[in-house]
Design a protein that fits this description.
Elements lengths: L9 E2 L10 E2 L2 E6 L13 E6 L14 E7 L3 E8 L3 E3 L4 E9 L4 E15 L5 E10 L9 E9 L13 E2 L27 E14 L10 E12 L7 E6 L2 E6 L22
Parallel strand pairs: 7-14
Antiparallel strand pairs: 1-2, 1-12, 3-4, 5-6, 6-8, 8-11, 9-10, 9-13, 13-14, 15-16
GO molecular function, one term: G protein-coupled receptor binding
InterPro entries: Arrestin, Arrestin-like_C, Arrestin_C-like, Arrestin_N, Ig_E-set
Protein name: Beta-arrestin-1-like
Length: 274
């Protein structure tokens, strides 16, 4: 396969849009015919749907962190960080949150979200931002007090199957699919040929306000955004690597649960089927 092809990513359609999907698929077709320019008959060909995937880098980047401050009568600071930069599908994301409230107000309505951002460059410049995981703890930081807490979020496809516009690795009908992995773009590659660009960001938000029913309207928001990478680890088993003319080809067996391989008749040298 040529280098820098887009990954196999499909946008999940709405329930009313059955059989209408947007994404990138790859198909390998083998056929037999007398002339290459003749019409290929279905009974003379075999097609195999394959996926192109990327695996997590072996050397992850620096753990994301960020700080947000609101200048009230005294500063209020929100400090958030992740324990690492790369997470594998199904792993919990640990978020360390520290709030220093030097004001006479309250810090409340803390909300953490994992947002999936999909840039569709196949045919237009559409962008979808979908919350795939969220957490709203009941913690409140009173005046002249602090909070230190570690929260955990795990984004899973199982909790997003009914959402329209979610990007998937493959199609929803495949039992072994999951939320789309982060798209890694090599330096110098035109992003427009990558099909669908997927990224993730964890947002930590809190409200600084006084007590009272109408106090939240005049409150101030604290927001920290932490971009991270969500991918599969490079597999060890069931992977075959072939080096040919300096090009590494990696083929992975994606087993379909509940499906048995189709039996193929064996043919001996005499042409008889066994």
């Amino acid at each position: 396969m040529p280098q820098n092809l887009p990954c196999s990513v499909t946008m999940q359609p709405a329930p009313s849009d059955k059989d209408k999907s947007c994404g990138v698929d790859f198909e390998v077709k083998a056929f037999c015919c007398e002339k290459l320019d003749e019409d290929i008959k279905k009974k003379h060909s075999v097609s195999l749907l394959i996926r192109k995937v990327q695996f997590a880098p072996e050397k992850p980047g620096i753990s994301p962190s960020g700080i947000a401050t609101v200048d009230s009568d005294s500063p209020v600071t929100l400090d958030a960080s992740l324990d690492k930069e790369v997470y594998y599908h199904g792993q919990p994301i640990k978020v360390s949150v520290a709030i220093q409230n030097g004001s006479s107000k309250h810090v409340k309505k803390i909300r953490l979200t994992v947002d999936q951002i999909s840039d569709v460059v196949l045919y237009c410049q559409d962008k979808y931002t979908k919350v795939v995981c969220s957490l709203e703890p009941a913690d409140v930081v009173g005046p002249k007090s602090n909070l230190r807490q570690v929260y955990s979020l795990t984004p899973l496809l199982a909790n997003n199957r009914e959402k329209h516009g979610i990007a998937l690795d493959g199609k929803l009908k495949h039992e072994d699919t999951n939320l789309a992995s982060t798209t890694l773009v090599s330096e110098g590659v035109d992003k427009e040929v990558m099909g669908i660009l997927v990224s993730y960001v964890l947002r930590v938000k809190a409200l600084v306000s006084r007590n009272g029913i109408l106090a939240d309207i005049a409150g101030s928001d604290l927001l920290v955004e932490l971009p991270f990478t969500l991918m599969h680890p490079k597999p060890v088993d069931d992977v075959y690597e072939v080096s040919q003319k300096g090009v590494d080809i990696v083929v992975e067996d994606f087993a379909r649960k509940g499906e048995e391989p189709e039996k193929v008749d064996e043919v001996d040298d005499a042409g008889d089927a066994n």
